[in-house]
């Protein structure tokens, strides 16, 4: 039996942005395959929120800011280990825009931008990488009476996973819609993310089961 999204449910579309799509600056393999299922899901939920990775040009997560470092290397920062990335989703750039023609943008009631502080990354739509600074999303969802979030978008092992984990930490039920996500998978990150999500009580579903 498919489950029907109700008023307590919210779809969270994570970072469906040009730089994460094929041809983008931090392209996720097969990333454009999530567009159709994400669009279909957006039409089935009364409540839709999107996140948008939104970095200043000199963001600390960019390998280009650390002489001698290359993308996908790790660096110890004051708030913990940080993967270094190619420059991506720079504020106002074309790469930071949502996937061209994405109709879900019209369905979205809120866009949460994250990672806009130079010195702190934010994979999660709820809390920055210092694990302290809130984005405001938990309060927004609570005020709207949301109890369960369904997550889709890019990338499964980073922004989708961290957002799902923080949804659980904030007291929401969390469901990752697997066929509507794709992963970066660097340094075993996908398996590690799923292990953490399972431990935290994040469930997984296919979009065919929702509607
Ligand atoms: C993401 C790496 C860096 C993501 C964002 O959306 O998963 N990954 N910034
Ligand atoms: Zn980023």
Walkthrough of the structure:
The protein is 21% helix and 21% strand. It has a single domain, classed as Isochorismatase-like (Rossmann fold). Helix 4 packs parallel to helix 5 (189-199). The protein has helices spanning 35-42, 104-107, 137-143, 156-169, 189-199; strands at residues 9-14, 48-53, 74-77, 80-83, 110-114, 148-154, 173-182, 203-205. The radius of gyration is 16 Å and the shape is globular. The longest helix is centred in the last third of the chain and has 14 residues, at 156-169. The chain is of the alpha/beta class and 211 residues long. Bound molecules: pyrazine-2-carboxylic acid and zinc ion (ZN). Pyrazine-2-carboxylic acid (VGL) binds at residues 15, 20, 53, 85, 123, 154-155, 158-159. Zinc ion is lined by residues 53, 55, 61, 88-89, 115.
């Amino acid at each position: 039996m498919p489950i029907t999204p109700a008023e307590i449910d919210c779809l969270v579309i994570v970072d469906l942005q040009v730089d994460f799509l094929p041809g983008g600056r931090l392209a996720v393999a097969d990333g454009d395959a999530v567009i159709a299922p994400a669009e279909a899901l957006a039409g089935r939920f009364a409540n839709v929120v999107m996140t948008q990775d939104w970095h200043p040009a000199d963001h600390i997560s960019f390998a280009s800011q650390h002489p001698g470092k290359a993308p996908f290397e790790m660096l110890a920062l004051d708030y913990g280990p940080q993967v270094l990335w190619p420059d991506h989703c720079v504020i106002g750039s074309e790469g930071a825009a949502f996937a061209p023609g994405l109709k879900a943008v019209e369905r979205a009631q809120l866009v949460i931008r994250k990672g806009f502080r130079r010195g702190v990354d934010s994979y999660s739509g709820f809390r920055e990488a210092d694990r302290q600074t809130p984005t405001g999303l938990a309060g927004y969802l609570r005020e709207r009476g949301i109890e369960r979030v369904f997550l889709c978008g890019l990338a499964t092992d980073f922004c989708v996973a961290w957002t799902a984990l923080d949804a659980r930490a904030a007291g929401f039920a969390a469901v990752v819609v697997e066929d509507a996500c794709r992963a970066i998978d660097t340094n075993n990150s996908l398996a590690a993310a799923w292990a953490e999500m399972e431990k935290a009580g994040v469930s997984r579903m296919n979009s065919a089961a929702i509607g």
